[in-house]
Amino acid sequence: MNLRDGVDLVPASARHGDASLTCNCQGEAAAHPQTSQVHARAPVFLTDSRNSDQTTTSPAATGSDEDRRGCCEQTGEHVRNESVLRLGPVARLKVSVCRQPLPTVLSLLADALGAAVQGVPPEWRSAARRACPRAAAQALSPACGSDRLWLPDCLSPSPLDTDDVPAQLDRAAAVTTEQLGEELTKRFPAGIPDAWQRVLERPAPFIDGYVHAAAGIWSAFAPVWHRSRHLLEREVERIGIAAVTGTLDTALTGLGPRVHRTPEGLWLPGRAAGTLDLPDRRLLLVPLVSGTTAAVLGLGGKGPSWIGYPVPGLRELADGSATTNHRALDPLEAVLGGMRARVMRHAHRGLTMGEVSALLQCAPGAATHHCKLLEAAGLVRRKRQGQQVRLLLTRRGERLLGALAS
């Protein structure tokens, strides 16, 4: 399987027009499309969960065709989320879900190298660091800098790739100097930086370091990935329910703490100010089993854009409390999540923020966060009455409850 040139790297980019899974509830077979066709890549950004203030420039947000190629970054501390992925009418979106482990491996790798914090549980982070050979970490140093990880497209996985991780890494090990040089030239049209020029002169240590580090992390982490299967199945079901009930817009508010729904589209982490479009109205969702604040973005390029986000239930998986029983999902909880579904079921009472906090048994700030997400989805509105701020259902919220509440 050859990789196409001219797109970007890392945690996963879906790149073939016929291979994605349109969101449904069909289970394992649907989640792993059977295709051996070429998957091209898109720009990928692995974003640091500590980001907040300073803007960082990302190639995919600039609009230049040359700059949209060969980019895999993990952006870091003090980075402002300012870029918006314009979705247009959500009812016309072709949303896909993919369960592919290599994007998760790369998220763990970036966290283990200290390139970008992904909210990885301490035990998992320690295991990933132990599995990453010191020589490999040193060889990958050119890819790490300014709280980010950048890898050329020819080394990145595709979320739609049906091969196992070892086979994908074998292909990465076979990348040629010519492929690497072509992508670095496209990524750095003003001149390849010295560190990358040294990689180009002697690519073997860098490529071998990447392959060995990813292989080591996968070997250590594969049991966790397999234990997460029920969470991944539930996420496919959650998005499928949202798609068939016309509530996909609401489900897109739950793509982790680093991606936010706005009236214009999705607000993305670690990007320069600007807007991006979905060229073919396709969006691939890639659940990550790495960290609770992980965010991996593949945007631009020739294929569908994709967003990697923490699979719901990750905390329970990490602390061992997650159940492997795949009980039937409550539709409202599937779309909104348990906490926000509880708020919706009681919102007809005109709850105050204090009552919401008591209902959820959480801190006021967390209660406000859930209410803001529901408000952003157009399901509730907040109205001040005297000294109190009360939560009121909108007509859209009432319709959602009528359609999904059991």
Descriptive overview:
The structure is a single chain. The protein has 406 residues and is of the alpha/beta class. It has two domains: 28-318, no CATH class; 335-404, Arc Repressor Mutant, subunit A (Orthogonal Bundle), CATH 1.10.10.10. Helices cover 39% and strands 13% of the residues. The chain is built from 16 helices and twelve strands. The strands form three sheets. The chain has a six-stranded mixed beta sheet, sandwiched between helices. Strands 5-6-3-7 form a four-stranded mixed beta sheet, with no helix packed on it. A two-stranded antiparallel sheet has the order 11-12. Strand 5 and strand 6 form a beta hairpin. It starts with 27 loop residues before the first helix and ends with a helix. The model is unreliable at 1-40 and 51-81 (pLDDT under 50).
Nutshell version of this structure?
With 406 residues, the protein is an alpha/beta fold. The protein has helices at residues 28-31, 101-112, 122-131, 134-139, 165-173, 177-187, 194-201, 203-227, 229-244, 248-251, 314-319, 331-336, 338-346, 353-360, 364-376, 395-404, and strands at residues 44-46, 72-73, 83-86, 94-97, 260-261, 265-268, 274-277, 282-288, 296-298, 305-310, 380-385, 388-393.
